[in-house]
Amino acid sequence: MNSDISEVLKKKSSNNWKDDVSILWQLSKTYIWRLIAALLCGLVLSGINGAIAWAIKPALDSIFVEKSAGFLILLPFGIIVLFLMRGVFTYLTNYLMSSIGAKIVRSLRQGIYDKLLTLPISFYNRTSSGSVVSKVLNDVGMLNQIVAYTVKDFFVEGGTVIVLAAVAISRRWDLALLSFIVIPLIIYSIGRLGRRMKRTSMNTRRLISKVTTILHESLQGIKIIKAFTMEKEMAHRQEEALAEHYRNVMRETRINEFSSLIAEILGGIGVAIILFYGGHLVISEEISAGAFFSFIVAILMIYTPLKRLSRVHNNFQQARTVIERIREIVLVEPERHGRIEKEIEGQIVFDNVSFRYPSAQDYTIRDINLEIRRGELTALVGYSGAGKSTLADLVAGFWYPAEGDILIDGVNIKDLSLESLRKGLGVVTQDIVLFDDTIKANILFGRPSATDAEVIEAAKAAYAHEFIMELPEGYEAKIGERGARLSGGQKQRIAIARAILRNPSILILDEATSSLDVESEQNVQKALERLMAGRTTIVIAHSLSTVKKATRIVVMSGGRIIQQGRHEDLLLQSGLYQELYNMQFVSKESNSPSVSA
Ligand SMILES: Nc1ncnc2c1ncn2[C@@H]1O[C@H](COP(=O)(O)OP(=O)(O)O)[C@@H](O)[C@H]1O
Ligand SMILES: [Mg+2]
């Protein structure tokens, strides 16, 4: 987002409509010339509408009263020209306004996406990705319509109403006044409905976001859904979400249509009174028949733009809900970071570190004191839930300690720039994340500036080159979304090649092989050993062979370090490590290779 827009969104006080107008203005003002062009076309359009109503009097009076044959021949041409111009200017106005709407939507979507990339992990921890997707696609998409039609309605239909009112007044002012009495009534009743509209509209947005979330999660977890035969249950959940959304949409429709209905009824009453009084004036020859019909046409023509104008308020309320929902993302503080730029060498010190997840009651990590020297291999072991992954995430700066400090090469992690920290860091986890692109592009993700030769070298080091070459398109082969076309072990080796190419000083391996079968595990294991060579590595127990080699084994339980030392020494103490070690033997035989499983 151009930063001034997020600034604008920040300034808004929660319930002031002027702020919302100002936000819409800030969003559109980049396209000021287009906007002016659109409004000029709209002005011409209003003029043409007025001209049509105005021309009725001379036309009728000349043809029907004076019976002028010459004027009759001119009339069709005049009508054709006016309607042609009306068509052309309607086209131009709508085209220009729609393009402004579409441009705003494009830049908002880009802006929100950019913003999402800067948000801290804590944001993603408390927000479902489906609801974010829904905001970026559905909510922002709605703004397109709102901007295109509401702004146009407001200015163009508003202009038309004024021009036609002028024609009506010029024909017979007391008749016009009579018909205008109904207008304030209409505006009043619409205003009351607008407030309900805003509430309903907010609900609709929330509910469609629920629908999107279910859809999104189902697509991601389609295998699990099928494997657990949860199809019926999921269908049922979606059915409920859709039903709730439907009810709300219909509520919205009722309010919207009710606004129109009121306008229509009041309009009808007005027309009845006017016809009666006007007919009386014509019979008593106070005005000409032509003037009266010109007046009637003007009033009838006012009706449609007035109805559209009555929508403006509701649409504006919808726009406000969209703005509010976007603000929920835009106002989140970006990831914190310090300013110190440095190349990381790889010494890590935990100084009395404790950490609590924002959503949790209790500390997940407690009083951790640990010094990891440069190039050392440290293994974290412990039961599932002991806090191993959390500790690793702290090193990656995804979260900051609540108490104590983490120092990297003597610099507090909070003072390091994010760029420096993350550049020096490689992470390989159990969930393998590959993007829907070629294999080469996925490896290049580690360091986009790398040459082809470097990519191949990294792939070779990760034991991936061979199987890549066996694919028909080699490095250019597309990985389906979430890597559907490769085996787990192959995907993991691509992820390792990516990490090798990045060449980080600190490496975090979080159960990198635990989701793999024994055979792929061995290949990946070899690749990992290449990757670990010469780097400070924190490995979360994925295989006994690595743990044995560790300079130091850290045994965790309940977020604390309860034992640490070398394999041989720990094995002699009776304690958790011995217990885990014995279990490891058992589980090794049953092909389940993770200590923490
Ligand atoms: N994002 C999170 N938000 C809240 N609690 C979490 C989050 N991630 C993990 N936890 C909790 O923190 C504890 C430690 O989790 P974790 O570090 O993943 O353990 P391990 O990797 O040792 O299995 C667990 O009790 C877990 O429920
Ligand atoms: Mg874990």
Set down the secondary structure blueprint.
Elements: H1 3-11, H2 17-28, H3 32-65, H4 69-118, H5 121-126, H6 129-171, H7 173-180, H8 182-220, H9 222-227, H10 231-283, H11 289-330, E1 348-355, E2 365-372, E3 377-381, H12 388-395, E4 403-408, E5 411-412, H13 418-423, E6 425-429, H14 439-444, H15 452-461, H16 465-470, H17 488-502, E7 506-510, H18 518-532, E8 536-540, H19 544-549, E9 552-557, E10 560-565, H20 567-572, H21 576-589
Parallel strand pairs: 3-8, 3-9, 6-7, 7-8
Antiparallel strand pairs: 1-2, 1-4, 4-5, 9-10
Helix pairs in contact: 1-2, 3-4, 3-6, 3-11, 4-6, 6-7, 6-8, 6-11, 7-10, 8-10, 8-11, 10-11, 15-17, 17-18
Bound molecules: adenosine-5'-diphosphate and magnesium ion.
Give a short overview:
The protein is built from 21 helices and 10 strands. By secondary structure, it is α/β, with parallel strands linked by helices.
State the distance separating the first and last CA atoms: 44 Å
Numbering strands along the chain, what is their spatial order in the largest sheet?
A: 6-7-8-3-9-10
Low-pLDDT regions: 585-597
Mean pLDDT: 85
What is the CATH class name of one domain? Mainly Alpha
**What's the tally of helices?**
21
Which class best fits the helix and strand makeup? Answer: alpha/beta
Given the C-alpha coordinates, what overall shape results? elongated
List bound small molecules.
adenosine-5'-diphosphate, magnesium ion
Characterize the main sheet. Answer: 6 strands, mixed
| CATH topology tier name of one domain | ABC transporter transmembrane region fold
